[in-house]
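for the recovery benchmark. tokens below, seq after
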């Protein structure tokens, strides 16, 4: 690093910082300068506050990179535009068209970029920089390293190794060229991004929102964007990214609260959850709602009022007009139209100058067309076999009705709601009132698990069908686990084109960890192409075999060791041992955060595998993998999720098996010869990239590339060796503590005899 060059860069940063802070002061004084009516001043103040937010914090660095072109022009790139008073541009915004070469330049297409410089900063102090000279890369193209060939510089690797916290960070400095192309995709489309763990799909979706807001100003505002996550914890984890990019008014929601009533955590059988998620539930709700409109039973007249002034309408007179009002856009619209008709008929027939009071009229309307809330409607439907049977039509069996039926609470305020009830309540709300906000663009994260009813909730909020949908089919679990994006695409697509893109580079998960997790892919998702791994981690996965009663204690010991090094730690454990882990944490006096309750702490976090989806930690302790597999219908996928949450360290604590792998066709355990091939960036790219899937086309599902899982060329991590080492350490420790050293050889020989291992077998092992 050239110290004189560093001083020049610091001087430029200082100048840009001064201009930015000057603008901040001008904006702060804008409301006072307006000195107009109170309402006008308030508007100026709000506009000034938004503009100040868009500048970033005073302690933020003004830029993260710069590039120079062949004409000798230099451009600094940052999160926010910085101009001088004379409108000279000091820093261009990363979303602007002017910044395109910074992200798109590669060794085989430098986009007229001569030099690309990435800065390492602390606040606005320039600590270091790294240069990429594209002429140099072109000259030594045959000798390029894997990371150079793929356009991954030290800045990216340094960011991947940085310590994590309870909040997701932006990646504006390290956006890869392939990611950038997806971020810059046009607004008017349904874009589905398939990506394995750590491929950056969530970051791409969020940065795409920021890019769209900048480049489609006038067409879309922050309040026109909705980001939907799977649960409150995930939403909290990602919600600081967009404000950090200057887009503070984007709405974040999670599936458990996407409607008029949030889930209260009512547990239900997976069969019931799947049934409630099916598209036919929409037809059940439609019929059930229409059936609430009826002439009172056992009565041939509708009395309006009492005594001398009572008005009476016959059953035939009322029933003849109901179909007309049931055709209204919403239940409440139809009710209002019926009320108006009833009012007109009553007032036309009365001779009183006083007429019928609004209260009396409303009581009559209520007898025919009851006022309903989504909560009261669904509670009364699910609590009544009679109503369910009447609404079932030909879509539901008696068994289905029995599964849907549940006892209602005494009061509606005490009713408990499941996660799958939320989408039903949302559909009911739409049919009853039809009033909830719609959005110009919607992002759905972890979309691979959504039911048709949840997808319908999202679709109803989309004005045009402009969506970014991200997920990983290899991590698709739960009642709606799927192996294809087809049904999601068909449900969400509207008038805009749609396409499915696949991310091929895995940034977060270290090579050694992925080599372990990839053993699960032939079972969990055989048609998914594993991502190409970018980097190795600081250590191989640690597999620790202990007695069943020691599992929880060992998991806590391991987590404390990681936390003691200042790492952000996740303990991922199944319900079978969760109570034991919680008890061990409490007895050890360890403070921890419960991910399931929506919390993420800076130290130790306890999560079920399903709660860990989408999250990342410096270090992960996976507890009892065999129980994880046993507890979920797609258990190997859930274990795959658990193993791939780490950015650096992985420990597996188990009493039975480390991966719960199946046996092969001969009845033997899967061996290293069956290991799936792990691709790294050190291998050259394929000649033909994986094709993008776009509609319309004739095939019925997304294009896929089948991985040759029989390859013997796995890299980085040998599972047989690691398991053998873990078991050997456990046995050796037991021998060491049980007998004296003179007896060790005899004990080992007797173990050999107990296992039926001949001396020849041992000698062959070491030849």
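predicted aa per position
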């Amino acid at each position: 690093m050239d110290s004189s060059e560093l001083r020049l860069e610091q001087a430029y940063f200082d100048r840009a910082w001064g201009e930015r802070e000057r603008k901040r002061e001008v904006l702060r004084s804008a409301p006072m300068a307006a000195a107009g009516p109170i309402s006008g001043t308030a508007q100026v103040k709000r506009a000034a506050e938004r503009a100040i937010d868009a500048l970033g914090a005073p302690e933020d660095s003004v830029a993260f990179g710069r590039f120079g072109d062949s004409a000798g022009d230099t451009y600094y790139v940052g999160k926010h535009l910085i101009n001088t008073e004379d409108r000279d541009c000091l820093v261009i915004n990363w979303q602007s068209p002017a910044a395109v070469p910074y992200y798109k330049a590669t060794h085989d297409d430098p986009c007229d970029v001569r030099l690309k410089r990435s800065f390492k900063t602390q606040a606005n102090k320039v600590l270091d920089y790294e240069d990429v000279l594209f002429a140099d890369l072109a000259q030594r193209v045959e000798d390029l390293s894997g990371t150079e060939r793929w356009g991954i510089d030290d800045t990216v690797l340094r960011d991947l190794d940085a310590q994590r916290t309870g909040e997701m960070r932006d990646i504006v400095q390290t956006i890869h060229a392939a990611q950038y192309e997806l971020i810059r995709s046009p607004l008017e489309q349904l874009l589905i991004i398939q990506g394995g763990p750590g491929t950056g799909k969530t970051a791409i979706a969020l940065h795409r929102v920021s890019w769209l807001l900048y480049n489609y100003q006038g067409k879309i505002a922050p309040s026109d964007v909705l980001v939907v996550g799977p649960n409150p914890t995930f939403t909290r984890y990602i919600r600081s990214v967009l404000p950090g990019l200057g887009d503070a008014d984007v709405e974040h929601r999670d599936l458990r609260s996407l409607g008029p009533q949030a889930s209260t955590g009512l547990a239900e059988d997976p069969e019931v959850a799947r049934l409630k998620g099916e598209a036919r539930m929409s037809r059940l709700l439609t019929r059930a709602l229409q059936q609430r409109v009826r002439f009172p039973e056992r009565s041939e007249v509708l009395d309006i009022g009492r005594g001398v002034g009572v008005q009476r309408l016959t059953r035939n007179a009322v029933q003849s007009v109901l179909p007309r009002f049931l055709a209204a856009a919403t239940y409440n619209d139809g009710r209002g139209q019926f009320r108006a008709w009833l009012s007109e008929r009553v007032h036309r027939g009365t001779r009183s100058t006083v007429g019928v009071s609004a209260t009396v009229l409303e009581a009559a309307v209520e007898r025919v067309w009851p006022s309903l809330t989504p909560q009261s409607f669904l509670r009364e439907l699910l609590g009544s076999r009679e109503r369910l049977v009447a609404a079932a039509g030909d879509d539901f069996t008696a068994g289905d009705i029995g599964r849907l039926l549940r006892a209602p609470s005494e009061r509606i305020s005490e009713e408990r709601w499941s996660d799958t009830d939320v989408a039903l309540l949302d559909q009911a709300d739409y049919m009853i009132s039809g009033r909830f906000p719609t959005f110009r663009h919607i992002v759905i994260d972890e979309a691979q698990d959504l039911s048709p009813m949840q997808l319908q909730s999202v679709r109803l909020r989309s004005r045009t069908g402009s969506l970014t949908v991200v997920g990983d089919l290899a991590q698709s679990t739960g009642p709606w686990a799927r192996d294809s994006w087809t049904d999601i695409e068909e449900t969400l697509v509207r008038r805009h084109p749609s396409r499915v893109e696949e991310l091929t580079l895995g940034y977060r998960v270290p090579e050694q960890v992925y080599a372990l997790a990839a053993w699960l892919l032939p079972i969990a998702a055989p048609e998914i192409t594993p991502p190409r791994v970018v980097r190795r981690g600081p250590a191989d996965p640690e597999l620790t075999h202990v007695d069943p009663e020691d599992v929880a204690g060992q998991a806590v010991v391991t987590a404390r060791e990681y936390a003691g090094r200042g790492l952000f730690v996740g303990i991922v454990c199944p319900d079978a041992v969760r109570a034991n882990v919680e008890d061990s944490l409490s007895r050890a006096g360890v403070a921890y955060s419960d991910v399931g309750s929506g919390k993420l702490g800076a130290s130790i976090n306890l999560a079920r595998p399903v709660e860990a989806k989408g999250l990342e930690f410096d270090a992960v302790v996976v507890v009892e993998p065999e129980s994880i597999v046993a507890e979920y219908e797609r258990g190997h996928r859930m274990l795959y999720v658990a193993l791939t949450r780490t950015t650096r360290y992985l420990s597996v604590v188990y009493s039975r098996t480390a991966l719960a792998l199946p046996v092969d066709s001969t009845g033997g355990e899967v061996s290293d010869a069956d290991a799936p091939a792990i691709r790294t960036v050190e291998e050259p790219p394929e000649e033909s990239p994986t094709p993008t899937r776009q509609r319309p086309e004739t095939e019925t599902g997304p294009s896929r590339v089948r991985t040759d899982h029989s390859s013997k060329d796995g890299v980085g991590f040998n599972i047989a060796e690691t398991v053998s080492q873990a078991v050997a350490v456990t046995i050796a420790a037991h021998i060491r503590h049980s007998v004296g050293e003179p007896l060790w050889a005899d004990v080992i020989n007797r173990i050999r005899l107990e296992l039926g291992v001949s001396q020849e077998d041992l000698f062959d092992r070491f030849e």
